[in-house]
Design goal:
The chain has about 350 residues and is an alpha+beta fold. The chain has helices spanning about 5-30, 40-80, 95-165, 170-200, 200-205, 210-220, 240-260, 295-300, 305-315, 340, and strands at about 225-230, 265-270, 275-285, 320-325, 330-335.
Amino acid sequence: MRRIPLIYQILIGNSAIVCLGAIAGTAITRRLATTEGLTLTVVFSLIGVVLSVAVNYVVLRVALGPLTNLQIAAERVTDGDLSVRVPQTSAGDTQIAQLSQAFNAMLDQVEDDTRAIERSRALTERLTQQVINAQEEERRRIARELHDDTAQSLATLVIYAETAAQNPQAQAVRERLIGLRDLAGTTLEGVRTIIADLRPSQLDDLGLAAAVRAQAAERLAHRGIRVDVQVRGEERRLPSAVETALYRMLQEAFSNIVKHAQASYVEVDIDLTNPQIVRARVEDNGVGFDPNTINPERDGRGVGMFGMYERINLLGGTMVIDSAPSIGTELTITVPLEPVTQASVA
């Protein structure tokens, strides 16, 4: 029977039931026709119906059992359980058995691919964290060298030029020295700005809140944008990886506001009231945008935003952008402060 397709198995089983029922019913009817046994006739008819239904149920249960198992397995896979497998039985249709085997083989492949993807994702996260750490370390090194060498040399040059310019003799030389002093001063300010962008000393020495205040003043208030930085809760040092990631993300947010928002007011809120999480929010009254239209692969826009998402994913946090044209933009960043987060500093 297992070699016969399911539809023919059901057809043969039902035909056998009909034939047996007809034969048994005919024999019983002939036997009771000579007596006035109407009650017995009804009873035997009911028994025949019940037996027919029971036999049909058994036949269909055996024949369709593998399909039920396949349906249950498919539902569990839909719920995310890739460890389920369809049990293999000797009963039922061979085609259903082959389908079950193919289904199990597919699940084996999917499970292997999923494990490979998870391993690849974990490796990518580790490599990304190493790249970010190396980048921050290189920024720290360059900032230190600029501060110790270039900035000091420029500052000395400004002092020499200022001293020489105070000599009333040789007016032409004095004017050139004044110009040289001004140029050196401007260059020194530019170098200090580069140092602050590479690795602000406030972040290492004073923490996130102080560095964000300085960055907001430099990037926003310096350009005429009114900015209000609020820190809720007791200011405290956070894990280095968290402080660096939040600072870089807020730095990118400030840059985007200057480049695209056309805002006149920015509110920055850093919430340290919860010891388990830190939340940072940046809201502006600019022109806003549709976040769904940002696609770095298509038009190159949103690369900085993509980097922000990468940083927040490494820390197990979330970033939500609420914006639309003409209503401004609100950026909310939430990062957990758990031991697993601190492990990513290394």
